[in-house]
Amino acid sequence: MNSASVEPFSDVDKLHIDLKHSVEAMTDWQPAEGETSARHVLERIESVILGIVTSLSKDEAPVLLLPNRSSWTNVSFDSSVGLQMTSESSVTSVRCDCASSVTKFAQLLKILSVIYKLVQSDSFATKRDIFYNNTRLFGSQTSVDTIVDDISCLLKVPRRALHVLATSKGFISGDLCYMESDGTRISCSSSQAVAVSSNISGIRNIVSSAQFVLIVEKDATFQRLLDDDFCAKLSPCIMITGKGVPDLNSRLMVRKLWDTLHIPIFALVDADPHGIEIMSIYKYGSVAMSFEAHSLTVPSVMWLGLLPSDLQRLRVPQDVLLPLTKTDECKLASLLKRPYLSSQPQWKREMELMQQTQVKAEIQSLSAIAPDFLTNIYLPNKLRYKGWI
Which intervals hold domain Topoisomerase 6 subunit A/Spo11 TOPRIM (predicted)? Predict the structure, then answer.
């Protein structure tokens, strides 16, 4: 048996206790699980429709005002929440008498009617179902995806309250059992990963003795850790991957685990600007979904690796390091301007080091040191010697 499986990770245990105490000390802390009533959602939709009917009765062209979900000026930063939309955000007008927005106006009304029926009947549909029920109107799946988020933001209700589900692309594995909304019992402890649920809010009866959660950026790395039996070799843990930029369900699942277990959550991403941004989305959220920050972000997420400083410390062979591209440089410059960097000086130093060295590296580059380096040496030592920031 690997020595890592029996030697306690005292710093991880201490971090677990500290996190638990910090949550208990937050008297205003509330889990993200609070449900929005069906009646509340229906009333919000009825209010929107009433506004349209009122405009028509006055012989005025109806206009829908959508908060602008793509502007940094509409976002503020709170270290305990992340990126959240301000109450006085700028809006985008969607008019029915304007050629450039009449199609979107029709799409919004159509999806509002679909949502109303779903909520009223307590039934669910996927975004894919909605698209294929009227492909000519929507044109693309992306249009449906965007409009569902716009409606969630417009109505000021969590997207899960709209009864519209998204197909999950993430996977999860480790010391975790739970029950799906339909009563199906799910065990994640087998050697095969389990697809992240498409209805996170319906999950209940979570049972786990895991000491930490490991977010893995890439599916290839996740599969490698599975093949190496990482969860069994190390202390009980849970691994999850969103297979790159995380989908909503992967983010909701990480938040669900945090709300339920209050155990340390670490991120394992490539030492490149793209990996850092992915980790930042889990931790602090994104501009596009800032209106739902309170139920999506997990500010306790910590950067375990791959750190730019690790590349020098471990003397990763030069031939597996990659030069930063112009796109990388622009992304890195953008990240260094993010408001959350002020509360993460160690992150900033790591990014500045990347900027100085002008190199990046994938997690897989550690195999150039030794084939089993990631599983048997790098991660155990990181966890044993408090190698996170």
Answer: 212-383
Q: State how far the Cα of 249 lies from the Cα of 167, in Å rounded to an integer.
A: 8
pLDDT, tens digit, for every residue of 265-319? 999 999 999 999 999 999 999 999 999 999 899 999 999 999 999 999 999 999 9
Does the global pTM surpass 0.85? yes
- Asked if 120 and 42 touch (Cβ cutoff 8 Å), the reply is yes
Query: CATH classification of 168-385, choosing from 3.50.50.60, 3.20.20.60, 3.40.1360.10, 3.10.20.30?
Result: 3.40.1360.10
Domain boundaries defined on the chain: 38-165, 168-385
**Catalytic residue set:** 132
Angle in degrees, CA 38, 125, 164, rounded to 5: 55
Closest CA to 366 of 323, 305, 325: 305
Contacts of residue 166, defined as CB under 8 A and 6 or more positions apart, other chains included, come to 126, 127, 145, 198, 247, 248, 249
Residue type for position 38: A
Q: What's the CATH number of domain 38-165, 3.30.420.40, 3.30.499.10, 1.10.10.60, 1.10.10.10? A: 1.10.10.10
